[in-house]
Specification:
This protein has 384 residues and is of the alpha+beta class. It has 8 helices and 21 strands.
Amino acid sequence: MAIMRDSSQKVRTSVQPAGWILVLFGFMGLFVLGFIFGDGVLLVLSILSLVLFVVSWWVGKCNLKGLDLQVKMPERVYAGKGFEVLTYLDNQKSWLDSFDVHLSLHVLHQVEMRSHARWVGARDGARLSKRIGVPLRGATSALKAGLRSSFPLGLFQHSVQFEIPQSLIVYPRLITPLEVMTCGSLNDADPQRGAQFGEAMGEPRGVRSWQPGDSAKRIHWPASARSLARGQGLRVREYDPPGFTPRSCMVIFHSHAEHGEVYRHDRFERASSLAAGTLHYLHSRQVKASFTADFLGWQVMECENRAQYIELLAILAQSNRSVGTEQHDFQAALEHFSTTVDQLVIVSDIDPDAWSDGMKLPENALVIDIRQMRFKRQHFAIAS
């Protein structure tokens, strides 16, 4: 989606060291010397220095006027994944080109896109493209942009600051917890592979005819030899799965902790990524999932289709940590939800040892440990 800024923005100007040198020594210094010694040449040079100073100021301001900026970028991205930002710098002036224009676009979390257009012809434009990435989740409704230039002689620096109304939602980084990947009931079926993981570990049921998609390792060769001798096909072993796939699963997010627990800001970001990864894991395996959290007031959000899954990611991208979650409220939520679903997955930004004391966990609860992995922040700001 292209957004255009208003070309009538006010141009701000600051004098550079070269400009002060020209005023102090080129104009004032030559003027004083010419007046003292009565030298007309020095007086003329001082006047020419002043004219050069004024003309450079006027040309520099005209250099940034009449420029329109358009931005095309995706509105929804994942944290840590790069995406392309296209900017179009259009010169609406009919008689004056623009030179040496620097563009800066602040996206989110100190991430900036910086580009440089050396020459933008009159009634023409420049296309600038950069690939950037936002390391943390978040959301914004406007982007801060700026144009600056020191053209023509570096005596002044002219700049324009403005905001572009552009919606951007950065979803949390998808991190699948190790506990979810190793849980038998959650890891028993994978519709994307068309087979059950548990078939190789369950009790043998018998021998059946080979079907498309069966692994070659499951072929029962003695039975297949007898079957082929009778003019029939291959035979494969059949197993009973060791577990079952839950029909419903709820992900519970909380920030409850006992007194004395030291809170770290990166823990909430990591826990949000673990919750998002769990929802993605369940959604990809077509498990009926739901989500609730203390920052939602224990309101239940369904995750049965892709639209609801995307909406949950948007909620996680804009959520803030709940402060002061009470133990009795959390315990009541666990007891209530444990009877409504087959599997509970508990995600917290606090170590399990710091919040599980005094809590009575249901039998169908699976606790995600926040200490299972570490990742460092990456800086994606790109300069020209």
